[in-house]
Amino acid sequence: MVIRLNLKKNDKIELTIDSVTSEGSGIGRYNGMAVFVRGTVPNDRIIAHIIKISKNYAIGIVDEILEPSNSRIDSDCQASSKCGGCSFRNMTYDEELKFKKSRVQDAVNRIGHIDFDVEKIVGADETNCYRNKAQYPVLIENGEFLAGFYAYKSHRIIPCFSCKLQPVEFEEGLKAFEKWVLKNNITSFDEKTGNGLLRHIYFRKAFATGEVMACAVINGNDIPDKDYLVSELQSAFENLKSVVININCKKTNVILGEETRTIWGNDKITDILLGKKFVISPQSFYQVNHDQCEKLYDIVRQFADLKGNETVVDMYCGAGTIGITLSDYCKELVGIEVVPSAIENANENAKLNNVKNAKFICADAFEGAKEIEKLNLKPDLVILDPPRKGCQPELFDIIENMGANRIVYVSCDSATLARDLAILKEKNYNLNHLIAVDLFPRTPHVESVALVSR
Question: How far is CA 251 from CA 11, 192, 199, in A?
Fold first, then answer.
């Protein structure tokens, strides 16, 4: 039904915010029409300046806060109102956790049509400086070096050296790159023309060991004055272990290219999760919040409830982190992953931890599952940790045919989780446990772990 109102662009309206979208925008209702306003908190009463009108909704910006919500706090970051990262930096953390739990709950009920209560949400002990990875787009113009993050739904750079989510030493790393850029008249990549050398600056830190990797993503084959850059980075990072360049000459907004070359130190850094060592390369998928990841994997372990004689299949194994943390508790572990470099990392991680009962298959989840089916392997437990789009529907047919009694599903998108849980329910897999885990404090994202059994 199309709602017809006299609401026009540039109108100013009084609005009470009653909920929040999955991207962190506040939602208010004006004569039945949804009005989305970023930077607002439930129970804020505001004057909204309308900047866009659609048939069924409007978008506004805050013109004035008439009455702030009891959950509203002052943001401690000057960039948070402009960049697309910390949607909840002006909201109490307790309120943020309530919203994230309710978001998972709503998805399961409304999308999955499953009557089940989310048991709890596991909050973070530390909501600042937790990210072990940062990728900064770069703009160099008129002798000025700008690095930071993209504004919400744009490629306009918001300068920010001291992001509250990143380790404090990343700021010193950016300053090291700035010195090298200005000394050597380095140009920045232009998405429109395809010209310019430096595209992104990329840091990874292993929180358990303190090891740091620095990466320059370039539109070219090499960089000048490498020794100077390495020297400045060594001064910036006490535990610098790796300096690499990543080659990306494609006219694309994908950050990393396929080729990476080490110009100093090691190819990888090493971290520790739940007592297991893991190597991290520039392309490795690795959860960005070390401490919350350990909590997440511990919940997976509890849900798995392994006795030592089971066969476990990890369908989206990445570098093998989940499976390897379970390897001491099962008889056999098989990991499936489509990215060849991740499989290389998984095999290296198994060797590093002296894991003898694991093997890894390079294939997408569906093709890998078919291969396991051909081998007549009968898993007792299947682990699913798919990308945001969730699992291929056909994958569940194979899981059903394998005869797996239990599935632990780790999800970074509650909507696709709910959709997939509904498919599993049709195949007589019932939801037994569901816990939300906040791996991404102050941002809209939330992780979930579900246990389903036949």
Answer: 40, 8, 11
> How far is the C-alpha of 85 from the C-alpha of 29, rounded, in Å?
25
Mean of all residue pLDDT scores within the chain:
93
- Order the strands of the 120-122 sheet from edge to edge: 120-122, 430-437, 447-453, 406-411, 381-384, 311-314, 332-337, 358-362
Q: What are phi and psi of 422, to 5 degrees?
A: -65, -40
Residue 106: count other Cβ atoms within 10 Å of its Cβ.
16
pLDDT of the residue at 407: 97
CA–CA distances in Å: residue 182 to residues 173, 175, 214: 15, 11, 18
Give SS3 for 349. helix
Measure the CA angle with vertex 404, ends 399 and 407; round to 5°: 85
Name 345's Cβ contacts closer than 8 Å, sequence gap at least 6. Answer: 268, 278, 279, 280, 281, 284, 318, 319, 320
| Cα separation, 361 vs 96, whole angstroms | 39
How far, in Å, are 139, 194, 267, 301 from residue 260 at the CA level?
22, 20, 9, 34
Q: Which residues pair with 268 in a beta bridge?
A: none
Q: Which residues pair with 335 in a beta bridge?
A: 314, 360
Distance CA 200, CA 148 (A): 10
Report the percent of the chain where pLDDT is more than 90: 80
Active site amino acids: 412
Kindly tell me the burial class for residue 8, based on how many C-beta atoms sit within 10 Å of its own C-beta (0-12, 13-18, 19 or more).
exposed
AA identity, residue 355: V
157-186 mean pLDDT:
95
Residues 6+ apart with CB under 8 A from 441: 88, 93, 96, 123, 124, 126, 127, 130, 289
